[in-house]
Amino acid sequence: YKAVALADALRLFDVQYHDGGTFQEEAIETYRKIIQQSVNKREQLLSNGEETNRSLSGTVDVNEEIMMEYSARSIDGFLCALYSALGKTYFMANMFEKAYDSYTKCLDIEPYYIDALNSRGSTALILGRYEQAAKDFLACIKRDRMRLFNDAFTGMERILEAQEDAVPGGWNTITTILDSLIPQLESKMTPSSTQQEKKYLAGALNRFHHVMFTYHDVKTKDRPEAWRHLTESFKHKMSILPPWQAGSEMMKTQQQKQVFT
Which residues contact 177 (CB under 8 A, 6 or more apart)? Predict the structure, then answer.
């Protein structure tokens, strides 16, 4: 597609959502242009009776394209990635209704695109739509076989803490999953694990133990068990922090003192 090169370039914006808005207007306008071109292309394929969900590698499951380069995706996967990226840009610009609508347009193409499900859940949570947020987070958790979006568990934690009856089945919907998932991940944390594996596992376990801490703290009132999970969460968080650089940190402190002086 003619828009592929530009879309690949827009990956640069993926790390600039938090930059304070410098690139947001430009990103939004560019995404809109590429999306319109891609929508036209998709409609043309559909009118010709051609497939819109087959990637260059031959897959027909759009969720399998999440880790692919844009240029290798099907037109459906391409559009889902663009709508999700646009939604995140809107989200960081505090345009939450527009972000919600962008994720929904992605899900109109692929109802179980886990990136959009997870992101729309976060947006619905901010908008106070707890039932919709819970529905999106649960769908993401159930279909995210690679555990790419573990913050869906954190989102569910926040909903359950604020309004448990918004989640059918309450806390059990995620605690039963975590009761088996936590031991599985901890068994993979071995001395032979690569640094990247350790970082992923520790990050996931930090989140999961914290969810279980909140469960026991606010629901079961089992303080010893809550403390155990909080301790484990803290342990995993600390295990992947970089070594403390005393010299450079002292230099930063002195520079800040000089600025304020």
Answer: 141
User: Model confidence over 64-118: pLDDT tens digits?
Assistant: 999 899 889 999 999 999 999 999 999 999 999 999 999 999 999 999 999 999 9
Q: What is the C-alpha end-to-end distance of the chain, expressed in Å? A: 56
Cα 210 to Cα 103, 168, 214, 232, 236: the distances in Å are 28, 21, 6, 8, 10
pLDDT tens-digit profile of 125-158?
999 999 999 999 999 999 999 999 999 999 999 9
Q: How far apart are CA 141 and CA 228, in angstroms?
A: 24
Cα 59 from Cα 1, distance rounded (Å): 18
Residues present in the chain in total? 261
The percentage of residues in the chain with a pLDDT greater than 70, rounded to a whole number, is 92
Neighbours of 247 (CB within 10 A): 8
Distance of CA 218 to CAs 84, 158, 203, 211, 214, Å?
A: 34, 11, 23, 11, 6
3-state secondary structure the chain: CCCHHHHHHHHHHHHCCCCCCCCHHHHHHHHHHHHHHHHHHHHHHHHCCCCCCCCCCCCCCHHHHCCCCHHHCCHHHHHHHHHHHHHHHHHHCCCHHHHHHHHHHHHHHCCCCHHHHHHHHHHHHHCCCHHHHHHHHHHHHHHCCCCCCCHHHHHHHHHHHHCHHHCCCCCHHHHHHHHHHHHHHHHHCCCCCCHHHHHHHHHHHHHHHHHHHHHHHHHHCCHHHHHHHHHHHHHHHHHCCCCCCHHHHHHHHHHHHHHHC
